[in-house]
Specification:
It is a single chain. Helix 2 packs across helix 3. The chain has a 5-stranded mixed β-sheet with strand order 5-2-6-7-8, covered by helices on one side. It has a 3-stranded mixed β-sheet with strand order 1-4-3, with no helix packed on it. The protein has a single domain, classed as ABC-type transport auxiliary lipoprotein component (Rossmann fold). By secondary structure, the protein is of the alpha/beta class.
Length: 202
């Protein structure tokens, strides 16, 4: 009986420790959500557009924060993570920017907007800090495809690629540079969508 009580107490202590063990306080979580400042425009299509990412690569589909330190080699930072997957954060930022642009009646994720007039699909090919020899930079390479949902015809294919230097070797500077790259890609996308809107209006 005494052994049984000791066993129960041991199990209780073990589980108590596991439940009260705090999360790793040394981990810092970062986000991709750049501020987007757009020029005012009177162009507006009374149409909806849905946004989705396509075939999200495993290195962009989790909270792990990867960097590239050698050819074909990626490693995650130990004490730094994303607050959400890169694909989700970019999708959210793109939707916010399109809505701020007022080019369309409404922009939402494809899950929230099951039927829409247009669909914007993006694929992230590259988006990470790179440390190569004595150079350090952030590279971004995203493919955008816009489709007319009524005709199912692709009306625009667009690739944005950019390389930005990392000025200081610390996480805040790396994340700031990645947000700047994301910002540049989204502003470039909005300019592209503006041209599409002009074509449709005219």
């Amino acid at each position: 009986m005494k052994k049984y009580i000791l066993f129960i107490l041991s199990v209780f202590i073990l589980y108590s420790c596991s439940f009260t063990k705090p999360l790793n306080v040394n981990t810092t979580y970062y986000e991709i959500h750049p501020p987007i400042h757009l020029d005012k425009t009177n162009i507006r299509l009374n149409k909806t557009i849905s946004v989705k990412y396509s075939q999200c690569s495993p290195r962009f589909d989790s909270e792990l924060f990867f960097y590239k330190g050698q050819p074909y080699g990626f490693k995650p930072y130990i004490n730094s993570k994303w607050i959400d997957s890169v694909c989700n954060m970019l999708e959210s930022s793109i939707i916010d920017a399109i809505n701020k642009s007022h080019l369309f009646k409404r922009a939402q994720s494809i899950q929230a907007l099951s039927t829409s007039d247009y669909q914007l699909e993006f694929y992230i090919n590259k988006f990470e800090p790179v440390f190569k020899n004595n150079s350090k930079f952030v590279i971004i390479d995203i493919f955008f495809t816009t489709t007319d949902k009524k005709t199912n015809k692709v009306i625009d294919n667009y690739e944005f690629e950019e390389k930005l230097p990392i000025n200081k070797l610390n996480m805040q500077c790396i994340v700031t540079t990645m947000n700047k790259a994301a910002q540049d890609s989204i502003i470039s996308l909005i300019k592209r969508l503006k041209k599409i809107s002009l074509r449709k209006i005219n």
